[in-house]
């Protein structure tokens, strides 16, 4: 998979890709991540990429021209499955979206700033708008990092034990069951007996029941989905 991220703040975005699972997935060649500084695509003085909004109002708007130039250049080199715009008014990211995006070849992610981008960018260049939650960040970069992490860990070969992604919370619309490790008893706190007896069908049944009970208690909304 190849991910191209268009940003005015590449330095804010780089560190999540320089540690742990994301770093290893890049080193293993399972994913390529490229950063494009939007300021490299403007002819304006001071590398200007934003301007006042027509009609008045507080806040600057990112101009269409540098964004169009950057996306057009990328599209001239390969085809893209999605051009994603990170914005608080997009569809809220969930596991299902991460699963489906982990299957594609090439994506572009555009990070918004200020009051956002000129509407004509959204109307003509963007194929998907994604929010990471109902709150406003200073820019799309942190959202893009969250999106990339959620996608990249699902690419086959990224996690050592592939089944561990399949048993994550939210796969199957259920929260994950509780997990325990040694010691079997700590300050009188005991690990459930069923996990210690090696009866794997029974353990599996216990985990399924726990996942369902936890979901019913903590996130009943997940059980309403069809
Ligand atoms: N940019 C600003 N806020 C955002 C959010 N909640 N999700 C994605 N991008 C954003």
UniProtKB/TrEMBL annotation:
Q: Which GO BP terms sit in this record?
A: tRNA N1-guanine methylation
Which molecular-function annotations from GO does this UniProt entry contain? tRNA (guanine(37)-N1)-methyltransferase activity
Write out the GO cellular component annotations. cytosol
Query: What InterPro entries does its record include?
Result: Alpha/beta_knot_MTases, tRNA_m1G_MeTrfase_C_sf, tRNA_m1G_MeTrfase_TrmD, tRNA_m1G_MTases_N, tRNA_MeTrfase_TRMD/TRM10
Which EC class does it fall in? transferase
Describe the location of the tRNA methyltransferase TRMD/TRM10-type domain by residue ranges. Answer: 1-224
* Annotated keywords: Cytoplasm, Methyltransferase, S-adenosyl-L-methionine, Transferase, tRNA processing
Q: What catalytic activity does the UniProt entry give for this protein? A: guanosine(37) in tRNA + S-adenosyl-L-methionine = N(1)-methylguanosine(37) in tRNA + S-adenosyl-L-homocysteine + H(+)
Localization, per the record, is: Cytoplasm
Q: In which broad location class does this protein mainly occur, judging by the first location in its UniProt entry?
A: cytoplasm
Which parts of the sequence bind S-adenosyl-L-methionine?
112, 132-137
> The organism sits in which domain of life?
Bacteria
Entry EC no(s)? 2.1.1.228
Query: Its family?
Result: Belongs to the RNA methyltransferase TrmD family.
On subunit structure and binding partners, the annotation says:
Homodimer.
Please give the function described in this protein's UniProt entry: Specifically methylates guanosine-37 in various tRNAs.
- Which protein is depicted? tRNA (guanine-N(1)-)-methyltransferase
| Lineage, broadest ranks | Bacteria, Pseudomonadati, Bacteroidota, Flavobacteriia, Flavobacteriales
